[in-house]
Amino acid sequence: MSRTRSKGWLGALPLLAFFALVFGVPAIALVVGAFTVQGRPSLANLAQSLQGGYLNAMIGSVRLSAVVALLGAVLGTFLAHAVVTSRFTLLREAVLTASGVLANFGGVPLAFFWIATLGNSGVVSGLIGLPSGSLYTFWGLVVVYLYFSIPLMVLVMAPALDGLRPQWREAAANNGATAWHYWRFVALPVLTPAMLGGVVLLFGSSFSAYATANAMVGTVVPLVTLKIASALTGDVLIGYENIALALSLDMVVVAGLVMAVYLPLQRRSSRWLH
Amino acid sequence: MAALTGLEPVAAVAKPPARPRVWRGVVFLLAAAYFLIPLGASFWYTVHTPVEGVSLSAYGELLTAEGFVRSLLLSLGLAVATIVLVLLLSLPAMLAVRLFAPRLRPVMEMLCTLPLVVPPITFVAGIGTSLRVGTDVLAPTPFWRTIIAVQDPGFPVVLVLAYVVLVLPFVYRSLDSGLRTMDVRTLVEAARNLGASWPYVVFRVVVPNLRSALASASFLTLALVLGEYTVASLLGYEPFAVWIVTVSGSAGQLSVAVSILSLLLIWLLLLAVSTVFGREKQK
Question: Domain ABC transmembrane type-1: where (chain B) (predicted)?
Fold first, then answer.
C-alpha cells in the first residue's frame, strides 16, 4: 500500500499539467503582453487603458454591474422571500425551477428576446409607445441583465431565507420587537453573508458579460468587454492587441478586488445558517 | 392606543398573515409580468408577421437554414469532447486528492474556482495572444503542426481546451458533492484488498456510485458549451451561438425562434439534472 500511496497523487498530475498549459500560458501571455510595447517592457499600454474612451468603458462596466448587482440583489431577495413564505408548494417549486433555468439563460438568446420585445420593431415597444432606441441604452441593458440576475439572486437567497427559523421571529416578538426590529436586528444580520455573496456573483456575471451586450447594443454603450473585443478582432491598427491585454488585466484586477472584499466577509459568516 | 399594554406584541404576532399575503401577491404579479412578457412577446414575434399573419414558418425554416445543421453539429461535437476531456482530467485528480494527497485539496479548490473569477473575455485575449506567439515561436519546430492542427476550423480543439477550463468550476462542484455522499476511501480500499485493479476500481466501483454527479456535470457542460459565444466568436469560429448572431442580421424571426428553442433546451437539460438528482435522493 505504501508504494501506491506515494504514487497516488500522480492522478492529479494530468489536471495540473493541463491547467498550467491552458490557463497558465494565456495568463502569462496576458501579463507579458500588457507590459510590452513593440517588444520592449513598458507601462504605456496600462497607462493608455486607463485614459479617455477606455477609462469611460471601464467606468461604464463597473457602473452597470454595480447597478445590476444592487437592484438584482434587492429585487431577488424580495422575490425569494415571497417564494419561501408562500404556502403554495406548486408555486414555490415553479418559481425555483424557473429561476434555475433563467439564471442560466444569458448570452445571445437573451438579447434577441428583449429586442423582439422592446426593440425598435419589438412587439411590446409599439404597444406602449416606447421611443425607438430606448432599449439600446445603459438602462435598457440594466433591464435586460436583471432577467438573469434576479433569478440568480433567488437561487442564492432561497436556501438562506429557508434557514431563518420561525422561532427567532417568535422570540423577537415575545420580547416586544416589531417586524422592523426583527428584520433590522435578527434576520438581516443573519442574511448578510448570503446577500453579499449574491451581490458579488451578480456583479461578476454582469461585469464579464459580453455576448448579450454585443448582440444588443454593439458599441452604443461603452463597456470594457466590447472595447476588448474590438481591439482584439483587429478592426483597428496593429498594436492595439496589447491595449486589449492591458484592459483585460484591468478587468481581472477589478474582479479580483471584488472577490478580495467578499472572501473575508464571507469567512466570518454562515454561523447561524447551518 | 399609544400606551404600551403588554398585549400589543401578541396582536402584532396575530396580524402579519393578512398583510404579507397582499404584498406577496404584488411581488409575484410584478415578477410574472417582468419574466413572462418577454417570453410571450418573443413567441408572438416569431409566429406573426403583418403580411402573412400567424404562421409557424420561422420554425420550419430552421432545418433548411444555411449553416444551422453544421453549426449545431459543431457545437454538439465540441460539447461531447469537452465532457469527455473534463471528466477524464478531473475525476482521477479529485480521487487522487481525496485518497492520497489531502494537502493538495486547497490548491485544487483554488484552481477549480479561478476560472469563475477571470472574465472569459480576458481568457480569450490570453489564448489569442498565446496562439499567435506560439505559432511564431514554434514555427521551426515539429510542434508547429500541432498548434496549427489545434486551430483547425473543422474541429477547433483549442475551443475544447478553453471550454474545459471554463466548465471546471461547475464540474468540480458537482463531482465534489457527489463524492461527499460516499465513503470513497473505504470503497476503494475494500476493492483493492479484494484484488481489483485500478481501472476496475475506477470504472466498476467509483463511477457507478457517482452516476448522478457525472450526469449533472455533463448536462451543465453541454448547456454551457451550446450557449458559449464569447470565446468562439473572438477566436473566429462559428459554432451554434455565433451562427445565431450571424443569421440574425438577415433573418430576425429565425434568430428569435432559435432563442426560444435554446431556452427550452436549457429547461430540458436542467429538468434532466434535477430528475437524476431527485432519483438519487430517494434511494
Answer: 72-273
Domains of chain B (ranges; CATH) run 67-278 (1.10.3720.10)
Count of domains in chain A?
A: 1
Across chain B, the runs of DSSP E, i.e. the strands, are 48-49, 53-54
Residue A70, in any domain of the structure = yes
Report how far residue A212's alpha carbon sits from residue A144's, in angstroms, rounded to the nearest whole number. 9
CB nearest A29 (choices: B39, B118, B130): B130
Residues of A in contact with B101 (CB under 8 A): 8-9, 12
* pTM for this entry: 0.85
Residues 73-112, chain B, touching A (beta carbon < 8 A): 88-90, 92-93, 95-97, 99-101, 104, 108, 111
pLDDT band at B75; cut points 50, 70, 90: very high
pLDDT < 50 positions in chain A: 1-4, 274
Percent of chain A beyond pLDDT 70?
92
How many beta carbons lie within 10 A of that of residue A25, not counting itself?
A: 17
What is the Cα–Cα distance from A103 to B218, expressed in whole angstroms?
18
pLDDT tens across A29-87, in order? 888 888 887 777 778 788 877 888 889 899 999 999 999 999 999 999 999 999 888 88
Task: Please name which of B65, B235, B237, B122 lies closest in space to residue A49, comparing C-alpha atoms.
Answer: B122
Residue A177 lies in a domain: yes
Domain that holds residue A237: 37-270
